[in-house]
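Supplementary Text 2. Reproducibility record for the structural model of the 87-residue chain.

All settings were left at their defaults, and a single model was retained for analysis rather than an ensemble. We include the record here because the model underlies the residue-level annotations in Supplementary Table 4.
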Amino acid sequence: MGRVIDTTLFGLFHDYFKVYLPKQRRCSPHTFRAYQSVMETFMDFVKDQRCIDLSAVTFEILDKKCFPCTWTVWNQRAAVFQRETTG
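Retained model, structure tokens:
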């Protein structure tokens, strides 16, 4: 991974996962892992759709093309692929 372009975006991700969820919301470890898994899957989707490295993801890249239909279809296909390869 290269140098992060949008430090604000990744700073918000950090604060959400390291401050808000555990300290302010006091979510359970299961909820934390679920949120983290969805975010990781979504970021994989963005990387695949834009053919970019994670460090190149910015607020501008997260546009309406990412939501909701395209993301939903991609996520469903990923789930099917994962079941086929692990099951």
